[in-house]
Amino acid sequence: MAEEIAPIVELAEWFDTPPGQYALRWEQAQFDAVVADVFGFNALQVGLAELDLLRNNRMPFKAYVGEVTPTPEVAARWQACTVADPHALPFESGSIDLLILPHAFECTDEPHEILREVERVLMPEGRVVISGFNPWSLWGARNRMPGMEPWLPHAPSAQVSLARVKDWLKLLSFEVDRGRFGCYAPACQTNLWLDRWKFMESAGDRWWAVCGAVYVVSAVKRVASMRLIGPAWKQKRKAPAAASVVANHRVGDL
């Protein structure tokens, strides 16, 4: 009996194909742009250790976590590598400033559970960046055609639309601030034909933006601030202006 290939491994192998490289170039550019201005101390990439999607970020600690053990050569590129289930990340709650999920939802049967775990480990105002295949694109339509060889590494049922991801993020009190589709060329197997359809990038982004084959979305974890309510003090006399400023400053510092 043949050994079953893990979905994340199958995805990594697909990225070595011409359409995979085409999608990866676009995704890398989006991740580079989003993570460049995210500040903090700890950044994590979940899955696909071969891809350094945090390369443009300047945090002092950048690590990989995933179910697949990277090779020694790949592991050497990271400051730390942890083999763990993305549904149960081995990190303290509120300890991560930036967490990126390249196609993680397509490699699990419970994507919403991964997002709940992301919400747990992220600090307030921490950022998550997610990429995925768009099921409502030309590539997605090609993947659903009966009797044809699968085009994408994962079944259509595994693909999560950007609209659904945004709904999940909002339910967990994330604020979506960036989202973009890309890769509008038809499903072509060779670089020759992919290059011939380059004009579709600008046309697609302008005229049918939601039909891009791949998307990247970014969101910030928002936490409602606490406000202590105490008994109203009796107003005895009006304080001098200077004293009032000092009192307000101290209250604000509590």
Q: Would you give an account of this structure?
A:
Helices cover 34% and strands 20% of the residues. By secondary structure, the protein is α/β, with parallel strands linked by helices. The chain has a seven-stranded mixed beta sheet with strand order 3-2-1-4-5-7-6, sandwiched between helices. The longest helix is centred in the N-terminal third of the chain and has 18 residues, at 18-35. The radius of gyration is 23 Å and the shape is globular.
Which strand order does the major sheet show?
Answer: 3-2-1-4-5-7-6
Alpha-beta classification:
alpha/beta
Return residue spans where pLDDT drops below 50 for at least 5 consecutive residues: 233-254
Number of DSSP helical runs: 9
**Which value, in Å, is the CA radius of gyration?**
23 Å
Main sheet makeup: 7 strands, mixed
The helical percent reads 25-40%
The rough form would be described as: globular
Strand content: 15-25%
Distance between the termini: 65 Å
N-to-C series of helices and strands? HHEEHEEHEHHEHHEH
**What's the total count of β strands?**
7
Residue-averaged pLDDT? 81
